[in-house]
């Protein structure tokens, strides 16, 4: 049996992904040791390998088959636009991709004026403004703390992730338009899906069952 390799996104999603893996009997103690500098971890019994990588790189590893499976946010999947199968919504890391800014920017958005949009997600912003809204905007790529941009006058609005909304609130900004609902997804390499169908399919089925049981326990089953 060959190894199946899983790429997990580093950061806030990693912990919940590992917990979710444990619930379908896939364990990897080593990966939980945060002091370790090791990059790749192995579960010999299940013939699985795991590695943690930057979220943005996960779709690349999966498209090229360096990882058979990946767990990554829908924001990254949309932004990277790689060729892969998105097979399951894991329901963790739920948040929204939004256009946000000061309330005064609402009018600019509604009237289709030429505005500047700061974002870490230029492809998502382009697709939204150009293809969906048919509005010409200037996209300014930033790498973090996006909320700063309208405050210091770099842009009129931002396209960014909103989870609790507290970063926006604490900076006098608000959600102006919602672009998409986001959460972590399981993605699979197109060739691996065929070659390792049985093992990958089992994983999808096991995860679906865990998620369904979770929904029922939360009282939201089937609704
Ligand atoms: C993300 C996002 C927002 C914030 C939203 O930033 O870009 O800034 O979280 O969360 P909230 O709605 O719960 O306040 P992150 O912390 O990942 O850092 P970044 O600013 O460097 O992108």
Topology:
Blueprint: E1 4-9, H1 12-22, E2 40-43, E3 48-53, H2 58-63, E4 69-73, H3 74-80, E5 85-89, E6 95-101, H4 105-110, E7 115-119, H5 122-132, E8 137-141, H6 148-152, E9 157-162, H7 166-170, E10 174-182, E11 184-188, H8 190-195, H9 197-217
Parallel strand pairs: 1-3, 1-4, 7-8, 7-9
Antiparallel strand pairs: 2-3, 4-11, 5-11, 6-9, 6-10
Question: Would you give an account of this structure?
Answer:
The protein is of the alpha/beta class and 223 residues long. 35% of the residues lie in helices and 28% in strands. The protein has helices at 12-22, 58-63, 74-80, 105-110, 122-132, 148-152, 166-170, 190-195, 197-217; strands at residues 4-9, 40-43, 48-53, 69-73, 85-89, 95-101, 115-119, 137-141, 157-162, 174-182, 184-188. Strand 7, helix 5 (122-132) and strand 8 form a beta-alpha-beta unit. The N and C termini lie far apart (39 Å). The mean pLDDT is 94. The site of 1-O-pyrophosphono-5-O-phosphono-alpha-D-ribofuranose (PRP) has 13 residues, from strand 9 and helix 7.
